[in-house]
Design a protein that fits this description.
The protein has 205 residues and is of the alpha+beta class. The chain has a domain of 142 residues. The protein has two helices and ten strands, in the order αββββαββββββ. Strands 5-4-3-2-1-8 form a six-stranded antiparallel beta sheet, covered by helices on one side. Strands 7-6-9-10 form a four-stranded antiparallel beta sheet, with no helix packed on it. β9 and β10 form a beta hairpin. The protein is elongated.
């Protein structure tokens, strides 16, 4: 006696599986997009926080400028290398005393490529140098090596510093605290890469 039940054919099973997969794909697409968007937003937010933290750190060091033992506590050094400017900010500041160190020179910039090693990470560095070295006595090639500095913002290809003095922005300056400091961060040497500018307004002397 034959049974009245009929089994599904392989073709029918494959069609059902295909339709179910299509339904799941359509249903999950918005979820996958949302997760990806949240991940990208979080990464951008984290990067922006790191950037602002670095800028605030520079501003703090500048605002702690002192004239004890040095006539020109603020110095901008600017030079052109391979068509790109290389800027350094030198500060005679009290911030080392917060770590129980004597007054000293704090420097911000990107190490020269001539001293790069295998472990070098590209970015903006901060150096805390001996109190015996004044801002106008520091040589970039001799004193600013990656292994003696601290990376404060990775990925920066170029940094520019300008001081506002007597209503004019200048990229070379030595003296007391200027009216403001402009910091330019470039994340690539190509013209199409992103560049950000920050203005730090400073207290009057």
């Amino acid at each position: 006696m034959k049974s009245g039940k009929r089994a599904f054919t392989l073709v029918e099973v494959m069609i059902v599986v295909g339709i179910a997969g299509l339904i799941m794909a359509v249903g999950l697409a918005p979820l996958v997009y949302s997760v990806r968007l949240m991940s990208e937003t979080r990464a951008a937010f984290t990067a922006e926080n790191r950037e602002r933290y670095a800028i605030n750190g520079i501003a703090l060091d500048v605002r702690e400028l002192v004239t004890n033992g040095v006539s020109s506590p603020f110095r901008l050094f600017h030079k052109d290398a391979l068509g790109e400017p290389e800027d350094y900010l030198f500060l005679w500041t009290i911030t080392p005393s917060y770590m129980r160190l004597p007054l000293g020179t704090v420097v911000f910039g990107i190490p020269p490529e001539s001293v790069l090693g295998d472990d070098y990470r590209k970015g903006l560095y901060r150096w805390l140098l001996s109190g015996d070295l004044r801002p106008d006595e520091i040589n970039v090639d001799d004193h600013l090596k990656p292994e003696t500095g601290r990376l404060i913002l990775a990925g920066v290809e170029n940094v520019g510093f300008k001081a506002l003095q007597d209503g004019e922005w200048v990229d070379e300056y030595t003296g007391g605290m200027p009216q403001a400091l402009r910091i330019s961060l470039k994340y690539g040497r190509d013209s199409g890469k992103e560049e950000k500018n920050y203005d730090v307004w400073l207290p009057k002397n």
